[in-house]
Amino acid sequence: AMKKDDLRYFLHPTSSIVDMESWGGPKIIEEGCGIRLKSIEGKTIIDCGAGLWLNNVGLGRTELAEAAKQQMEKLSYFQTFNGYSHPLVIETAKKVAGMIPMDNPRIFFTSGGSESNDTAYKLARMYWYLQGKPNKHHIIARTKAYHGVSYGAVSATSLPGFWDGFRPLVPAFHHIEHPHCYFCPWGKEQDQCNLECAEALEEKIIELGKENVAAFTAEPIIGTGGAIVPPDGYYQRIHEICDKYDVLFIADEVITGFGRTGKMFGMLHYGVQADIMMMAKGITSGYIPMGAVGISERVFTPIKSHGIFMHGYTYSGHPVACAVALKNIEIVERENLAENARVVGEQLRSRIRDLSLPCIGEVRGIGLINGVQLVQDDAARIKFGPEIGFAKRVSAIAWENGLALRPLMDDGLQLSPALVITETDVIELVDKLGRSIKQAYDEFLG
Ligand code: PLP
Known about the structure:
By secondary structure, this protein is α/β, with parallel strands linked by helices. It has helices at residues 2-9, 17-22, 50-53, 62-74, 87-99, 113-129, 151-156, 196-208, 234-244, 297-306, 319-334, 337-354, 390-400, 423-445, and strands at residues 29-33, 36-39, 44-47, 106-110, 138-142, 173-176, 213-218, 248-252, 276-279, 291-295, 360-366, 369-374, 403-404, 406-408, 412-415. The protein folds into two domains: 34-57 and 337-445, Aspartate Aminotransferase, domain 1, CATH 3.90.1150.10; 63-334, Type I PLP-dependent aspartate aminotransferase-like (Major domain) (Aspartate Aminotransferase, domain 2, 3-Layer(aba) Sandwich). Strands 4-10-9-8-7-5-6 form a seven-stranded mixed beta sheet, with helices on both faces. Strands 1-2-3-13 form a four-stranded mixed beta sheet. It is globular, with a radius of gyration of 22 Å. The relative contact order is 0.15. The mean pLDDT is 97. The chain binds pyridoxal-5'-phosphate (PLP). Residues 52, 112-114, 117, 146-148, 219, 223-224, 252, 254-255, 280 line the site of pyridoxal-5'-phosphate. GO terms for molecular function: pyridoxal phosphate binding; transaminase activity. Belongs to the class-III pyridoxal-phosphate-dependent aminotransferase family.
């Protein structure tokens, strides 16, 4: 009955209605603890994705429930508009400001990643506008980027399907090719590479005219587009180009923030500071919706002179979200979860490589943001293709084997469990994953 009611009443985000109908309804989860879920049928399942790349501290933490409860009882809500504030939003802003790789930042709060992205683009445009350069408003993003679905964020996104039926998008968003050595768009091998993927930014800025370009935005490590790690030197070169043409660099750390990559923030791997930084997801581990934007002194200065940032969400700096964020960050730090992500991430990738299945190509990632590339031929880098739906088939079999495993586009699999995962869990996960991939491959070979 629950499944029927779901089909009858609920419009799901980004879910195939045809698939859900063919299954007789969605897969319903009713409980969770650590990295494990329980379905309404009573089945235990390992969540390979930490929800949508977000649950860093694991499910079922009573400390977080307690923090939310106490704050709801004390002050469930008050606005941060109109000159009001409250103790926890101040504490959270101070905490986040002290953590992010940015000198002397200000923090703006949102309810999630799309809002953080829209806020960042508005800040970038306003920054130039306030300096008498209203034409410097073009924003460059990358193919395979996922920045969310609000109109600004979806205009920066570049994944199949997200634009269909929604045009016109916000004007003046552009895309350059994303870096991915395994499938290098320039057909280069690493030893002959001249970082064409970074040079593409310079070409695009010249094409648009530097007097027209406000900002370049990127996920430090591409998430939804496939868990793709850029080559060495990429961000250093990107940063040089941004400096040369006076273009802001905006880092979307919605997935990579708060420990997932093995360091607290993704850009810490590259030694490059962003002018504006977006956060969400891991800031509360998804226990409550929240996002944030880090704003460098450079970007804040003209806004301060101007006197007001005419932008905000009802839930900007929500007291309960702040209470949860503070407690969540405390757990991430206390339990050294970034370090655990680094160590266990390496174990995960090496055990998947050790499966030595011919249909496993690149096993990529850093910390616990990982992708497994399924291929018909690793040497020639030939994918299965959408007609075959191989990753989708693997994911269906994996569900039967006790894994919630998301197929990514282009035959990728997402492996981004909660950062509390242990080596023992990894052994179980990889065993189930290996059996699922093998079964799908045997079926494919017939
Ligand atoms: N940016 C990145 C890198 C994301 O991965 C996501 C969500 O997956 C978003 C932005 C959008 O966040 P939200 O769904 O909270 O609006």
